[in-house]
């Protein structure tokens, strides 16, 4: 089992989403210890946003790209190759202002490429990253599960499903901004969910 772990908190230390992502990975590896683990800390090594240079580079043939464009596309190619070779994705996803972090959004944008990770057909879009499983560790200061304020889960289900990853499980740690007792309860609830992950 090859695991790709993406920690998307802006915090390098002490992020609950990273803590829970680590515990998800540990749980998975107790059942299937063989294989590889690749971890990216986006706070320390951020993915640059898709900009005009990247869009232009994707629209032209590789041999006509400038060195800068070629380097930017090579970085995206490397991230895509990691996802393609992974059996399991584990995403640490804190909620910032009711959405995913800019770090996670930039990573997602870098792996979404027409003709590579998805394609358009006569029957509509088709994801090309099929047969993979994803686990998402969600950390929130408030209580948003199943409420209209939770834009993270619908977005992540949509974008992962668009890429062909339909098997997605979410682990919630909520109410982290409500004090130490709330944090203790949130972590205990999240760990109960992790213990039952398939």
Question: How would you explain this protein's 3D organization?
Answer:
This protein has 198 residues and is an alpha/beta fold. The chain has a single domain (3-195), classed as 3-Layer(aba) Sandwich (Rossmann fold), CATH 3.40.50. 40% of the residues lie in helices and 20% in strands. The protein has helices at residues 16-31, 52-59, 67-85, 102-111, 152-162, 180-195; strands at residues 3-7, 37-41, 88-94, 118-121, 124-127, 133-139, 167-173. The longest helix is centred in the middle third of the chain and has 19 residues, at 67-85. The protein is globular.
Which outline best applies? globular
Strand order of the largest sheet: 2-1-3-6-7
CATH architecture: 3-Layer(aba) Sandwich
Number of helices: 6
- CATH fold annotation: Rossmann fold
Number of domains: 1
Structural class comes to alpha/beta
Radius of gyration, Cα only, in angstroms? 17 Å
Summarize the helices and strands and which ones pair or pack:
Layout: E1 3-7, H1 16-31, E2 37-41, H2 52-59, H3 67-85, E3 88-94, H4 102-111, E4 118-121, E5 124-127, E6 133-139, H5 152-162, E7 167-173, H6 180-195
Parallel strand pairs: 1-2, 1-3, 3-6, 6-7
Antiparallel strand pairs: 4-5
Helix pairs in contact: 1-6, 2-3
